[in-house]
Design brief:
Elements: E1 2-6, H1 10-22, E2 25-30, H2 32-41, E3 43-47, E4 51-55, E5 58-61, E6 72-78, E7 85-92, E8 101-105
Parallel strand pairs: 1-2, 1-6, 2-5
Antiparallel strand pairs: 3-4, 6-7, 7-8
């Protein structure tokens, strides 16, 4: 399964780490310094459950839109009224003309 994750902060980074541990094709979307750090150092996980691990998934610049290569997209949604992050949305596109399925969980 091909997965793309954006919003690689504390929560998004943990989600991406778990996915990297179980899936072979995970792509991260990040901007400037975060992207440079991920490319140089990898995605570093400090977890009591999963231990100390480093993953080296593909990293894309956030200015690039979605592509049809990925089966699932995870991205951080922002509440419009407050401008704060509210949840991660999972989008599974269909490879036909329909838009696909979305789930949001906080």
């Amino acid at each position: 399964m091909n997965i793309m994750v954006s919003g690689i902060g504390g929560i998004g980074g943990y989600i991406a780490s778990v996915l990297c541990a179980h899936e072979s094709d995970v792509t991260l979307v990040a901007r400037r310094k975060r992207r440079q750090s991920l490319e140089k150092n990898g995605l570093i996980l400090h977890s009591l459950l999963m231990g100390e691990r480093v993953f080296h998934p593909a990293v894309r610049y956030s200015g690039v839109g979605r592509d049809t290569r990925h089966d699932i997209y995870l991205y951080e949604d922002v509440f419009p009224r407050t401008g704060t992050a509210g949840c991660y949305t999972v989008h599974r596109p269909r490879h036909d003309s329909s838009s696909g399925d979305e789930w949001c969980g906080s």
